[in-house]
Design goal:
The chain contains three helices and no strands. It is mostly helical and 76 residues long. The termini are far apart. The mean pLDDT is 80.
C-alpha cells in the first residue's frame, strides 16, 4: 500500500500528464459548472452543498446545528 507522500506524488504525476492548461471564459466556466452539477445525483448534490456549508459556517460533527437559540421566550 502507498503511503501519503507516495499518493501525493502519484496524484501530481497524473495531473502533470493529463492537464492541458488554458483558460476559460466566464461563459465557459458557467457552462462547465452547470454540466458538472447536473451530472451529480440529487443525493450527491445535497451532500456537497452540506459540505460547503459546514466549511463556510464552521460546523463540526459534534455540533451539526446553528449555535445559540434562534428564538425563545425571555422574562422582562
Amino acid at each position: 500500500m502507498l503511503d501519503e507522500a507516495q499518493l501525493k506524488a502519484e496524484r501530481a504525476r497524473v495531473r502533470r500528464d493529463t492537464w492541458d492548461g488554458g483558460a476559460l471564459s466566464l461563459q465557459e466556466m458557467e457552462s462547465f459548472d452547470e454540466s458538472w452539477w447536473l451530472r451529480l445525483s440529487p443525493i450527491e448534490r445535497i451532500g456537497l452543498v452540506w459540505e460547503l456549508s459546514s466549511e463556510g459556517y464552521g460546523f463540526n460533527e459534534s455540533s451539526p446545528r446553528l449555535r445559540g437559540s434562534a428564538g425563545g421566550i425571555r422574562p422582562l
